[in-house]
Amino acid sequence: MPVHFDIYMIILIGLVSIMYSSVGHGGASGYLAVMALWALPTDYMKTTALILNIAVSSISFSQYYIKKYFNWKLFYPFALASIPAAFIGAGIPINPVTYKKILGIILLFPVIKLSGIPIPIKKIKLELNIYIALLIGAVIGFLSGLLGIGGGILLSPIILLFGWALAKQTAAVSALFILVNSAAGLLNEKTWPPSNIIFTKETYALLSVVIFGGLLGAWWGSAKAHEVSIKRLLAIGLGIASIKLIFA
């Protein structure tokens, strides 16, 4: 089916990629919010968001990895359970109305994170409870596959709340977590027919914009201070999209 964008949507997608990549995220929940406001088809939204997610999270991870923020021991228990769960979740059909309401609720997480509302952070613990991590990874992975997101926006606050890592270490782990979950979702045969991936000049424009935004945001987030006011503006936009999706 035809899919039409406009310049305003492309600009918003670019801003989302900058803000999300600055905290180690791929931006899928933000891309989905923007595409939902433009009333794009659900199947197209999911696959396109995952492709953009892979591009941006790869960039984010490389920047944080170079800065030596990545911790393999923190990453692998979550990923071990999330990858198969994301694959399974991606193969489950979901009613478009239900999909949008669940997505609207999930969008509240980035709204809280980007708005500057403080997250209580415990002192850093050296030991990660592997059983809790496996359970968390499985739940987030399933939701990631079901909705077409990477799950980092759900994992990050959990890591901080449990005191398993500092902010930039959390961003590094989240970036790779998003990458593997997004890839697992795309590999599921029910979400990867060529008919669902519509590569038009607008699609390539989106990919180009998020790659540029991801490079800028990842460099900014890993090496520079964050601009609070811009993040709060993005939080307002995502909040509006969340309300629209939940109550539409």
Which characteristics define this entry?
single chain; 248 residues; mainly alpha; 11 helices
Describe the structure.
By secondary structure, the chain is mainly α. The longest helix is centred in the first third of the chain and has 25 residues, at 42-66. Helix 1 packs antiparallel against helix 2 and helix 8 runs antiparallel to helix 9 (167-187). It contains 11 helices and no strands. The protein has helices at 7-21, 28-37, 42-66, 72-90, 96-106, 108-115, 130-147, 152-162, 167-187, 201-223, 228-247.
Number of helices: 11
Q: How much beta, percentage-wise?
A: under 5%
Helix content: over 70%
Which term fits the overall shape?
Answer: globular
Number of strands: 0
Structural class: mainly alpha
The major sheet is characterized as: none
Rg estimate, integer Å: 16 Å
The assembly state of the depicted protein chains is single chain
Report the span from N to C terminus: 23 Å
Give the low-pLDDT segments: none
Q: Summarize the helix and strand pattern as letters.
A: HHHHHHHHHHH
Mean pLDDT: 81
| Number of individual domains | 1
